[in-house]
Amino acid sequence: MHILVVDDKKEIVDLLETFLKRRGHDVDTASDGKAASELLTKNNYDIAFFDHNMPEMTGLELVKFVKANNLKTKTVILTGYPTMKDFLAKSVGADEYLNKPCQLSDVDNIVKKYS
Prior knowledge:
Layout: E1 2-6, H1 10-22, E2 26-30, H2 33-42, E3 47-51, H3 59-68, E4 74-79, H4 85-91, E5 96-99, H5 104-113
Parallel strand pairs: 1-2, 1-3, 3-4, 4-5
Helix pairs in contact: 2-3
């Protein structure tokens, strides 16, 4: 699968990138929403993991971007705000949510779900 990981925290990007590549996935990364939107425009991703709170564009804005551009990318919001899950579901329509810190097994389960 072709996967995009977007987070302004390098350690999270590095962890997810390494984990997903070891499972045989093609992974691109970005550290902010603006760079992510450019990658989404140029590439076809099966899944994108977006941090909720980032500079330039938030993960919520990136989900809206995916929807507005009719991209087939499945979207996953990574959030440190567990109480926002219901709000996120209603407001932007992300396909999945993971609360940070998340378990790598949860990431793996989401990827398998959309394989």
